[in-house]
Design brief:
By secondary structure, this protein is an alpha/beta fold. The protein has two domains: 3-12 and 22-157, Sandwich (Immunoglobulin-like), CATH 2.60.40; 179-412, 3-Layer(aba) Sandwich (Aminopeptidase), CATH 3.40.630.40. Helices cover 32% and strands 26% of the residues. The protein is built from eight helices and 19 strands. A six-stranded mixed sheet has the order 15-12-16-19-17-18, sandwiched between helices. The chain has a five-stranded mixed sheet with strand order 7-1-4-11-10. It has a four-stranded antiparallel sheet with strand order 5-6-9-8. Strand 2 and strand 3 form a beta hairpin. It starts with a helix and ends with a helix.
């Protein structure tokens, strides 16, 4: 990892505690202290691209308080992307930032969940030389320094961070409508499908069972005025990354992945709710995580070895908002299941390294409705009465969680 990126990583880790302060007011940008400062043209790699000369430059952002941020490069065309958690642009157009006219394009705008995105189009390939936050100054200053490089040295973002953060909404100069102005959006993810039937027992396939259940749950949620979409509508294969992308494109407020897996007899029974965890809680969770990721290999997608320290830190920062909300929904769901007498696993809420839960920008859970390898679970999963009761339970939990989540976030905006 390059020294500049190491510095950025250390800065992000130091800021994790700041991100956890949910009651902190929005940071304000100081336009007078913010600018794009161009440097001299370095002889070895400087070249003309249209009317622009590839020169080093520094993006300086003066803010009212320290905030978490993430930095990466994209290609097609070359761009610098800076995401900042809790930054209020104060209605200033991106074009008013001093020095913005030195770049081929420069824009900023709000994203979901309180993040702000800045996109700077580059006149050629660059590298991030330094990313730092000087929090001890009179006003904290974020500085991101870039240097031009030869085309073969350009390294735009790829790998796990790109997978989990893929297809974030494009920034705009006008803010999106407040969340309260639209209906709740839930994305249901029936596991497996197509060439991957999932668990099979007594002629029942997990893929068919959870798809039918998801369709019934979707109808129940729509009857309550909730917008619902499914990651698959039929018996087709959808890769793990594509499931996250579908949820993001739908503007998911909540992502629920549905499964009815298989484990050795006696190892697991009862419904269980999983939330993202970098370390699996027990051997059963590890087996399930390996099974889910291995299933993606059926379509030639290899998720192995794609995480690195920087990607983990970036996603960790983003999860400071969504992870507590995922955990809160898991508690609402298991509480409702207990009230309805739904048989649950001895540990109803667990953490696991399921790739389908990696996306850090919306709350998500994976619900094991039961395990097809357990005779009791199998009987319940195929019983219309139990399925109707479970559908009502999940719908009640989603509605109750949404009301609680909306109230909490309204308090945080004050």
């Amino acid at each position: 990892m390059r020294p500049g990126l190491i510095a950025a990583l250390l800065g992000l880790i130091l800021l994790l505690s700041a991100a956890a302060r949910a009651d902190a007011p929005a940071a304000q940008i100081d336009m007078g202290g913010s600018a794009i400062v161009m440097g001299a043209s370095p002889n070895p790699v400087a070249r003309l691209v249209g009317r622009d000369v590839a020169r080093p430059f520094t993006l300086r952002l003066s803010v009212s308080r320290p905030i978490p941020y993430r930095v990466f490069l994209l290609d097609g065309p070359p761009r610098l992307v800076v995401d900042l958690d809790g930054l209020d642009l104060g209605g200033h157009p991106a074009s008013t930032l001093f020095g913005a006219d030195h770049l081929p394009g420069f824009r900023w705008g709000r994203m979901r969940n309180g993040w702000t995105r800045i996109v700077a189009e580059l006149p050629g390939p660059y590298r991030v030389d330094r990313a730092s936050l000087r929090a001890a100054a009179a006003r904290p200053l974020i500085e991101i320094a870039l240097e031009p490089v030869a085309p073969e040295a350009f390294a735009p973002r790829i790998g796990a961070a790109g997978d989990a953060l893929r297809d974030l909404p494009a920034p705009a100069d006008t803010p999106e409508p407040p969340p309260d102005d639209r209906r709740l959006r839930v994305v249901l993810d029936p596991g497996h499908g197509g060439i991957d039937p999932g668990a099979i027992s007594d002629g029942q396939t997990e893929a068919d069972l959870v798809l039918e259940f998801a369709q019934g749950l979707a109808s129940a949620l729509r009857a309550r005025g909730i917008d619902v979409s499914l990651t698959r509508e039929d018996d087709s294969f959808v890769g793990l990354e594509a499931r996250m992308t579908a949820a993001r494109q739908a503007g998911a407020d909540l992502f629920v992945s549905l499964h009815a897996d298989a484990l050795p007899v006696g190892q697991a029974a009862g419904a269980a709710v999983y939330i993202w965890s970098g370390t699996d809680d027990d051997s059963a969770a590890r087996q399930l995580a390996l099974r889910h990721d291995r299933d993606d290999l059926l379509s030639g997608i290899d998720l192995g070895g794609r995480d690195d320290a920087l990607a983990t830190a970036l996603m960790g920062v983003a999860r400071t908002d969504t992870q507590p909300r995922s955990k809160n929904f898991a508690k609402f769901l298991t509480s409702r299941m207990a009230l309805e007498g739904i048989v649950m696993h001895r540990r109803p809420v667990q953490g696991a390294r399921f790739s389908v839960l990696k996306a850090p920008d919306f709350p998500s859970v994976l619900l094991e409705l039961g395990f097809l390898t357990d005779s009791g679970d199998r009987a319940r999963l195929t019983d219309p009465g139990w399925r109707a009761r479970m559908t009502r339970t999940i719908a009640d939990a989603i509605a109750a969680w949404a009301n609680d989540d909306s109230a909490r976030r309204a308090l945080l905006r004050r």
